[in-house]
Amino acid sequence: CSGEPDADAELASNIETAEGMIDAFYSFDPERLQPYLAAAGSAEASILSYQAWAKGGNYIVLNRAPCVSESADTIACAITVQDDPVQALQTGFDVTDTFHITFGDSIIVNVDTSSNDQPIYYEARQWVEANLPEVMEGPCKRTDGIRDTPGDCARAITEGYKQFLE
């Protein structure tokens, strides 16, 4: 008995859970997302903050690839979105964010994200940090590494990016 059917069943279950977490994230309802993150340690606050940022940035899902196995315990879910901060840069680019969801005993124990942001996104962020300190100390202020008001920060960053282009 190789155990493969159990591994296949666990993988299928983990993918189903990951898909559910992504559904909850893009519902923009933190009460729907939080139960998926209850065992995710510091990632819980980070992903809930990111959800509030995404809501404030008016994220619209353009393409949602099926979640896939990235490693024995990690599921990757790639979502291409249109959002206000990137739109403010007027590049015609839509970013793909990937959620890397790590499981332990069929429970989400960590979530990391990555994205394919263009260099101009980072240039604009540095410009806002240097030229609009009131944004970084106001709506984008962080406590323990987490933005205090992530939705307001997304809106302020969008306005900052518009100024960056001018």
For the structure shown, list the relevant keywords.
166 residues, alpha+beta, five-stranded antiparallel β-sheet, 51% helix
Structure description:
The chain is α+β, with helices and mostly antiparallel strands and 166 residues long. Helix content is 51%, strand content 25%. It is built from seven helices and seven strands, in the order αααβββαββααββα. It has helices at 4-25, 30-37, 42-56, 84-88, 119-131, 133-137, 150-165, and strands spanning 60-64, 68-71, 74-82, 95-104, 107-115, 142-143, 146-147. The strands form two sheets. Strands 1, 2, 3, 4 and 5 form a five-stranded antiparallel beta sheet that branches. It starts with a helix and ends with a helix. 27% of the residues are buried. The mean pLDDT is 95.
Shape: elongated
Q: Return the average pLDDT rounded to an integer.
A: 95
Major pleated sheet: 5 strands, antiparallel
Strand share of the residues?
Answer: 15-25%
Number of strands: 7
> What is the subunit organization of this protein?
single chain
Which structural category fits the helices and strands? alpha+beta
**Helicity range of the residues?**
40-55%
- Our Rg estimate from Cα atoms comes to 17 Å
